[in-house]
Specification:
This protein is mostly beta strands. The chain has a domain at 33-81 and 88-128: Immunoglobulin-like, CATH 2.60.40.790. The protein has 1 helix and 7 strands. The chain has a 4-stranded antiparallel beta sheet with strand order 1-2-7-6, with no helix packed on it. The longest helix has 17 residues, at 10-26.
């Protein structure tokens, strides 16, 4: 029979259980911060980078999009406008509060031509790539070096 030594601190287990019960019964309607949890899709289509972020329940005016040092940042705040202090809340799964997401962009993007559109709870940001012209070959004529003497 093999014995394994496990270091268990019962006090830590009780603290963890107490935190779970406190959240469940004392503050069931407490807003949850969603900083960094903004879901995005990033694809390339027709030589453009397309970033689509899900922002359900957020007004377009509450969203801030900026680019600094080649990093695109989407920020905003989702506010709970449906419940009041007198409401008895049984379950709260939708998170409210501040959200933000930063995405490093490739170097060859035209940052002066960024477009953002809000539709059906999604903000879609389109950034065209800078198209570099393919080098054109230069035809060099060959002179005849023979003399006519």
């Amino acid at each position: 029979m093999m014995r394994t030594l496990v270091n268990v601190n019962p006090l830590n287990e009780f603290r963890a259980m107490d935190e779970v019960l406190e959240r469940l019964f004392t503050h069931p309607a407490r807003p949850v911060s969603n900083v960094g949890g903004l879901p995005v899709d990033i694809i390339e289509r027709d030589n453009k980078l397309v970033i689509r972020a899900a922002v359900p329940g957020v007004a377009p005016e509450a969203i801030d999009i900026s680019v600094e040092n080649n990093v695109l940042t989407i920020r905003g705040e989702s506010k709970d406008e449906t419940s009041t202090e007198s409401d008895k809340v049984y379950r709260r799964e939708v998170s409210y509060g501040l959200f933000a997401r930063s995405i490093r962009l490739p170097e060859n993007m035209d940052l002066n031509a960024i477009d953002a559109e809000f539709k059906h709870g999604f903000v879609t940001i389109t950034i065209p790539r800078i198209v570099e012209e393919a080098p054109q070959p230069i035809k060099i004529p060959i002179r005849n070096g023979e003399s006519t003497n």
